[in-house]
Design a protein that fits this description.
4 helices; single chain; globular; 200 residues; two-stranded antiparallel ribbon; alpha+beta
């Protein structure tokens, strides 16, 4: 009777805390018992998400509105799989190296699926599984990494404000202004809220 409405984004984006196993990075790496993370919790970390119509991305009004509102003027596509990506083995290792960017990382999965791992406020890994129709924005300054899942294929639209800069800064790069701003906006704000709650 009083059931909450399901968030349609959860059909194409799911998140959970990762275990500490060194097994194949393409496996789900759930903790035992499984610890799922809500998309609202991801938003608290600055990770935004949408569910869009991947079969009609060329004419999708919802995508057009997001691009206009957020200033995403640049777009291209990246296919990650052994057959399509030159220097695949080297690139997939680089993608999985923990890093940050000085600008947002915007990825819209139009085919396949993959994992975007992000750090929470306590530096624990959260695995974000993005499937066809899922679009996420990782904020500038968040430590993250990417890997394929066991299907070994993703085709992603990459969006950017202005000319794209894809430079990764491997951890540690805590001195970068983008990192400091991220901490001030998302982590220290959360810590301050926790301290207020504890004092109440």
């Amino acid at each position: 009777m009083g059931s909450a409405c399901k968030d349609e984004r959860e059909d194409v984006i799911q998140a959970w805390y990762m275990d500490d196993s060194n097994e194949d990075q393409r496996l789900p790496h759930h903790r035992e018992p499984k610890e799922f993370v809500s998309l609202d919790k991801l938003a608290e970390l600055g990770v935004l998400s949408w569910r869009l119509d991947a079969d009609n991305y060329e004419t999708d009004d919802a995508l057009k509105k997001i691009r206009e509102a957020r200033g995403y003027s640049y777009v291209d596509f990246c296919e990650v799989c052994p057959e399509k990506l030159p220097n695949y083995e080297e690139k997939i290792k680089n993608f999985f190296e923990e890093h940050l960017h000085t600008d947002e990382e915007i990825r819209y999965c139009v085919a396949g699926s993959g994992y975007f791992d992000v750090r929470d406020h306590n530096d624990a890994w959260i695995r974000v599984w993005v499937k066809k129709g899922g679009m996420i924005v990782l904020p500038a300054g968040i430590y993250h990494r990417f890997t394929l899942d066991t299907d070994n294929y993703i085709k992603a639209m990459r969006l950017f404000v202005g000319d794209p800069i894809w430079t990764p800064f491997n951890r540690p790069h805590d001195d970068l202004p983008a990192r400091k701003e991220y901490l001030e906006t998302f982590v220290q704000k959360e810590d301050a809220g926790t301290a207020v709650d504890a004092a109440a």
